[in-house]
Amino acid sequence: MGEGRCCPTMDLLRSEPMQLVQLIIPIESAHRTISYLGDLGLFQFKDLNAEKSPFQRTYATQIKRCGEMARKLRFLREQMTKAGLSPSTRSVRSGDIDLDNLEVKLGELEAELIEINANNEKLQRAYSELLEYKLVLQKVWLIMMPGEFFYSAQSSASAQHREIEVQNIGEGSIDSPLLLEQEMITDPSKQVKLGSVSGLVPREKSMAFERILFRATRGNVLLKQALVEDPVIDPVSGEKVEKNVFVVFYSGERAKNKILKICDAFGANRYPFADDIGKQYQMITEVSGRLTELKTTIDVGLLHRANSLQTIGYQFEQWNLLVKKEKSIYHTLNMLSIDVTKKCLVAEGWCPVFAINQIQNTMQQATFDSNSQVGAIIQVLHTEESPPTYFRTNKFTSAFQEIVDAYGVAKYQEANPGVYTIVTFPFLFAVMFGDWGHGICLLLATLYFIIREKKFSSQKLGDITEMTFGGRYVILMMALFSIYTGLIYNEFFSVPFELFGLSAYGCRDPSCRDASTVGLIKVRATYPFGVDPKWHGTRSELPFLNSLKMKMSILLGVAQMNLGIIMSYFNAKFFGNNINIWYQFVPQMIFLNSLFGYLSLLIIVKWCTGSQADLYHVMIYMFLSPTDDLGENQLFFGQKMLQLVLLMLALVAVPWMLFPKPFLLKKQHQERHRGQSYTMLLGTDDCLELEPHHDSHGHEEFEFSEVFVHQLIHTIEFVLGAVSNTASYLRLWALSLAHSELSSVFYEKVLLLAWGFNNVIILIVGIIVFICATVGVLLVMETLSAFLHALRLHWVEFQNKFYEGDGYKFFPFSFALLSEEDE
């Protein structure tokens, strides 16, 4: 936002000045005015009808109408997805589309597609049935060929007929098959008539189908099954199913009824066939002809459907955006209240001060375009309500601002940590991720996203990819700082290089060529930038780097915590809160720097002088025995006296933070209600303490005990936090050491070990393992770990010194912010 507008220079330190504005809009131009304000995207409407349900509001009918159109558009999108089409990103503009015409057009398209789908479904079902019928005829024709199963079935029927004639003479046995119970009393000619049922049954049910047939008919059926090699489309479900063709020969109506019921129960599709082989061949020919005709008809229908959907796809995004815009406009209109004259709508909302003229011009344009006789009125309202927070960001700064907002949105015009986060966040990450080889890998990965950002912006990405793409500029800064700190640590995948000149150390004589520490002397000037490459691989490397990184972590931590306390001063000064300056900022600065500022000074002095003093001993006995002589731990003249002064200042700072502020707040409260002071009525950091239960009359009782307990908690939290937060910055040292050692292990124990075997296959395997370990562990897991630790240092150690984060975001009514998903 903000591109192309005549706006003041972007300022991230303080949020934009906001105003509560009232708009009085004539009804005839209301729709166009809201639409133009949506295009402008700089006005946040307040809901003036909060007590009404959605169905009681003025424009509920229009919203319902837009909802129905959105449903039709979802239906069209589903149809395009099923057809393998996607809405065209380059929509064809067919002039200004009227909502009424679009509603009619969408209704016609929906009805047409439903009819096409229904006809296509019927044709597909008929095609599937004919295909199954053809399979049945082909398989049965093979069965009915001379010498095949059908002839054995007929001979069995003749034998059965002779057996029945014999049984007619004698007395029927109790073991006679049930199929003969009725045939025994009928004409014997009927008993030899052999009926048949044929069709297809799902293969997985074929065994059960055969067993049930046998049991239900007491074995008085003849069943033949033939395997269908390829799955066939079931006419009922439309899914591909593996099936068997079956033919059942039976005798008698009773058996036939049982067989038909069993077929229905098993989902078997039945198809008739003629006894005569010639007729069967003729039927196969007819069915094949009908299949060809149906296939042609289906293809023509599908082509017509695809053409229709493709035509829809060209304009789909335009229609979808129009419906979303209209729906959001009517949602916004429902937030406006109707004037008593029923001729005007009254709106209230927040807007940046710089946007007042733009809003006025927009409303005048809407009045002119609507041919309205009465213009819209805009007037500024005065309120004690806290305005929303609005920072104008761009694609670079927005990701850093999101990191801050995830902790809490800044209070209105509170100092924004996002300004410093742009530098401090990637730098602290790089302190833990210092390797310029790994930094180059991160840089190449993020440059890929940045170079192709236009393409990725228009695509639907996965969750992880979308998150990475959104933070591409954060990763870019992290990569650049990692290259910088990697050059300082002199590590390229844990390998040192003499990039800035030769090492300062050399051998006394040629015999110490492979020496690690013994025999090395300083032969030239100090290595100009970063760690001397000779330190790597020596026995004293780890103690040296541990000492360096630990002290560096404390220096960085104390510096960032001091920055946080200084920001609290600027907050207090901006809001005119002198109590916070004198009784919060000053004692906090004194306490922190009397202890850890002094420790930082000792570290710098020790580095500059090369002293062997034990800083642990100095800091511990500064509290335990402040009057004892420092001895060999003395770094400079007057150190003992300075320690005593600093210790006294730190002890004084604690009650300084605790006691005066609650009493001064109580006095201020009493003076305000006596009419002696009207200062700090607004814009104080302690509004919760001053006015815990503010009402319209402002005569609430001051809860001194509550304020005192709150200040006590705040003081204890700062005193203990000064120690714990400083210790927390040691994570910079710990993660940097872990990253360096892991990188060294992968290089020495994988790559060099594989190289030592002098075998090409082992070397290739070693290189693959090294690449996988580097990418998986160091470039993914370590990156995430360092990112989370840097995030914690900003949220907990830095921002808690000054940042309240209890504001709420400015959400303007803007068409640019419409979600891509259908509402």
From TrEMBL:
Major subcellular site: membrane
Membrane-crossing segments per the record: 427-451, 472-489, 552-570, 582-605, 641-659, 760-781
GO biological process terms, semicolon-separated: vacuolar acidification
Bilayer topology annotation: Multi-pass membrane protein
Coiled-coil stretches: 92-126
Superkingdom of origin organism: Eukaryota
Subcellular location field: Membrane
Keywords tagged on the record: Coiled coil, Hydrogen ion transport, Ion transport, Membrane, Transmembrane, Transmembrane helix, Transport
Keyword Phosphoprotein in record: no
DNA-binding found in the keyword field: no
Pfam families named among the record's database cross-references: V_ATPase_I (PF01496)
Sample GO molecular function, one term: ATPase binding
UniProt record similarity statement: Belongs to the V-ATPase 116 kDa subunit family.
Biological function: Essential component of the vacuolar proton pump (V-ATPase), a multimeric enzyme that catalyzes the translocation of protons across the membranes. Required for assembly and activity of the V-ATPase.
Name of the protein in its database record: V-type proton ATPase subunit a
Taxonomic source organism: Liquidambar formosana
Lineage, broadest ranks: Eukaryota, Viridiplantae, Streptophyta, Embryophyta, Tracheophyta
